[in-house]
Design goal:
CATH superfamily of one domain: Histidine kinase-like ATPase, C-terminal domain
Shape: elongated
Number of helices: 16
Largest sheet: 5 strands, antiparallel
Helix content: 40-55%
Oligomer: single chain
Strand content: 15-25%
CATH architecture of one domain: 2-Layer Sandwich
CATH topology of one domain: Heat Shock Protein 90
Structural class: alpha+beta
Amino acid sequence: MTPPSPAPWWRSRSFNRRVLAALLVTSVLPMLLAVGVLHNRGRQLVEELLGENVRKTARAHAVDLDAFLDHTRDDLRGVDLTDPAALTAAVDADPSLIALMQLDGQGAVRAASQRPDTLAPWAVGSCQALLGRPMQPMTHAGEGHAHEVVVAVGAPAADGVTCAQVSFTLHQDLLSERTRSLVGGTAYIVDRDGRVVCHAFEEDEPHVDRGALLHEAARAVAAEGAPWTGVVEGAQGRAFAAFAPARTLPWGVWVEVPASRAAEPLSAWLRQVLALAGLLLVGAGGLAVVLVRRLVAPLGEIAAAARHIAQGRYGETLPVSGDDEVADLAREFNHMSEALAESYARLDERVAARTRALQAAREFSDLLLDTMQERILVIDADQRVVRANRAALETYGPDIVGCGCTEVHGDHSGAPCLTRRVLTTGTPQRAERVFDDPDGPRIHEVESYPIRGEAGRIDGVVELARDVTDLKAVQARLLHQEKMAALGTLAAGLAHEIGNPLASLSSELEMLEHDPDPAELQASLPVLRDQIRRMSGLLRELVELGRPSTDELREHDPVELLHDAARLLRHDPRARGVTVEVTVDPGLTRLCTSRDRLLQVLLNLGLNALDALGGQGRLRFSATPEGAGARLRVEDDGPGVPPEQAGRVFEPFFTTKPPGQGTGLGLFVSERIVTTLGGRIELRDGEGGGARFDVVLPRCGCPPTEIADA
């Protein structure tokens, strides 16, 4: 399958975007920071310069106002204010004078530069408002008209006042000319109450009309009458303002420039800077795209080649040009690809060699398994047969590979599958199955062993089935022969043991028959009774030997059993003069056994020891741990057992006692009991020269239900 083509460099994923973003950030972010810093610093400088410019403008206006009023006052200083002709001449000589008038104490026109009826009523009214007021010269009154104002040109007297109607047109033109340098600014001549005397502003600019009051901040500054510069909240919002008081009269100049209008030059400059920054950003972006393309395109080729190698095209190389880091990376990639191709070639050779070796080993193992007579199956964790040798195929069928456990064995015996037990318990299992063969039933002994993989996990099971039919038949014949031999030995011993008492009985009866003397009869009765008792005891032991025990198996303390046996033996007449001791290890474990049967064994061994001691010496019971079970020991310091007789002490009817003192079945019965309890009995030489019998028993090695003689 053809591998997918790599995506174009401009559509590649995160690396391109990260590189491009890094280049843009490193180039544009410092520029934006510089623009922000310059803008902030420029705004501060503009505000500082604007504040200084406003202050200077206000001060210049105040100086011009003082000069204007000084000029007007100087022109009127030599004029006869009571002569209408002189007043008219003064008005004609000064363009800023519109009219001069003198009022009497009643407010009537006493003299004027023009006929009284031609005087402006508002001007006369404003002059009348100055009557009787303790004002200094050049004090104004009234709201004025257009660019005109009425002022007192001399100190008001008790009998009247002289007023001048002054035009501020020329001064306003000068004020407007100075204010024009302040973009959007307004200038006012105000009195101490903050009332506008004269103003200058650009056309259509918001302003305060003459006679009106300025805002509260301006009125507070005008009332102080001291120079001031700062920022106020005016009618147009935040504004830079300055106040300069006049020297000639209680007036002053208020100049105000809205901050929004003041920032317009700075905004234009900022737009220019941002436009330049945008051009630089576009240039930086284009440069970044070119750089990313030159960097990422080779990386994309390397990534595509890496994918080809991952798909098995080892040894693929890239064209290399240049001596930069990307070229070095491509060269190293080519070296890696060539080395990888060589490594995989060597690996393929080794794999092929190993495969051939494994195939040969498998063929050898198959040959070896096929030569074995045992039926061998390899079963996986799913309980399916994955391998079988020739014997298994011939026995179970040629199609068993792939079959389940129950399909192979279930129909032949009905026995449970051992594989399931091995997979569940992890331990080897063993069982016997009866296989229906065309020649007759065959007995198979099946053994199953776990196959462990990594970390001890059970990956499968090996099953070996061995045909033991012939072996079972041979064992049965041998067992039958052993039984017959044992029966013959038992019969011979029984004939011997019973024959002697019967011979004694026969001779005594025959003697009494020939000589029926009452005295002889009385003397023969104990002998007859003793021989009958001897035969009766022998038959009773034989009956007990052949009877299966139904004692229940439970856990018992071996120490308690030893003490019970010692206590019973101490009461036996044969124990007089004999020291009976019990020594136990404190670490003994409890035994799963039959209490009565084990106590019978200990008593048999103890009674034999008492017979051997002959009324003197020491009999010692002891117990020590033996693996998970215990070793019970019965030892005496008597004459012991001769070496030539040690191998026969467990035979039936064999005894080392004098004739008439034992049946020879005690040790035989004891050995059979210990065997059925899962243990063994051993004869050793005692430390004091006597005999030592060791009874070795496992903790729970006995059959689960009953004790049966083998």
